[in-house]
Amino acid sequence: MNNNFNFLDNSIIKYPLIFVHGLAGWGESDDANKITPYWGITTGSLLKDIQKKGYTCIATSVGPMSSAWDRACELYAELTGGTVDYGLVHSKKFNHKRYGRKYEKALLPKWDKSNKINLIGHSFGGATIRLLIELLENGNKEEQEGTPEGNLSPLFKGGNKGLVHAVATLASPHNGTSCFEAVKNSDKFKEIFMIAANFFGSTKLNKLYDTQLEQFRLGTPANEPINTCVSITKAIEFAKKEDNAMFDLSIDGSKKLNDKLHISDDIYYYSFPACESQLNTKGNYIPEARMNPLFMYFSMCIGSYTGITDGGFVIDEKWKKNDGLVNTISSLAPFNEPSRNFNEFEKRQKGIWHIMPQIHSDHLQIVGGMQGSDIKMLKKFYSNLAELLNEDF
Fold first, then answer.
1. Catalytic residue among 30, 323, 360, 373, which?
2. Are 330 and 174 in contact (CB under 8 A)?
């Protein structure tokens, strides 16, 4: 892993660092985190060293298989306290409960323009925090028009600009991943993945790994008695819907999501693309030897695939380079938003993606798992990241 970025000579503030995990991930409130933290799966916590320097670090827990919308709603409730409101219109559209679990205590006792936060998302966490910002600043017109007066969640009202200072995304598929097109029988893979998630959420294993899918009646909160049963049919139905992570991570799903999002002119944006594949003599990208073995098959499929999505998007040669699960080109920046390559000698700008130097990492090494992670380098990377996000210009 490289760490080729430096900082201008600016003062450092210390806004809280809010970490949002990716697909199938977990946070501080999950028992799985006691066994191994998501942010330091094999290296040990990557956040402790940052905390020793005076930074507040919070590793949030949102639905590991849920859509960006549901995750953004859960993230908001977790940070501010109260009951998750998925929206009247949204919940009717996707046939799930409007309200989710209740958070008795807000993770952020103070969150206003004087007490901003920094948001860090790995993988699908990037889409989650971008949608949260969209709702905070602009609200949602459909929920506003379809919800009786006085019954609308504050999240959907908008008008909350100035609450976020900076954003960082790590190996995030801003424009989706071609994995679903490249891998044969990917629909079956999705179904198996969701059946496994339902199994965890509907048995005593939910105390270890909380799937947070009770709005779909596919699980029970970890602190409550089991009151659902494993339903293969329900899990397969969920996998086929658009209100899940799998759809949002697809190229067509990501485009649909990106069309609804707007970059904020009040926030600094940084993206960290990753790659651990190399070009071979046939013009394809193959996994490097240090890549996690779990990703090698997916990497080979992505690295040799070109084609067209169901929505008509052309996946060309530029999409072959990858980190095992995500195309490197997709993790640079959303195609419909302004971006530029990071230059340490230029003043940072709000409202534009600063594309950081490419990190030599597979999709999980960047968060400390599962193999090949350089502990010393990772700790330095996260320490520098904390300073980068808290620079005051």
1. 323
2. yes
123 is catalytic: yes
Of 66, 123, 172, 178, which residue is the catalytic one?
Answer: 123
**How buried is residue 237: exposed, middle or buried, by Cβ count under 10 Å (0-12/13-18/19+)?**
middle
In 3D, which of 350, 356, 355, 348 has the Cα closest to residue 10? 348
Three-point CA angle 78, 175, 365, nearest 5° = 65
**Do you know the residue count of the chain?**
393
pLDDT of residue 344: 85
Give the span between the Cα atoms of 322 and 330, in whole angstroms: 9
Instruction: Quick: pLDDT tens for 263-289.
Output: 999 999 999 999 999 999 999 999 999
- Closest to 324 in 3D by CA, of 371, 357, 283: 371
Residue 153 binned pLDDT confidence (cut-offs 50, 70, 90): very high
What is the percentage of the chain residues whose pLDDT exceeds 70? 87
Angle between helices 251-258 and 125-138 in degrees, nearest 10? 20
- Paired with 18 in beta bridges are 58, 119
CB 191 within 8 A of CB 180: no
Count helices and strands (H / E) in the chain: 14, 17
189 and 142 Cβ atoms separated by less than 8 Å: no
CB 324 within 8 A of CB 276: yes
Distance between CA 302 and CA 298 in Å, rounded? 6
Distance CA(366)–CA(68), nearest Å, equals 21
Residue 104 DSSP symbol:
S
Whether residue 355 contacts residue 339, with contact meaning beta carbons closer than 8 Å, is answered with yes
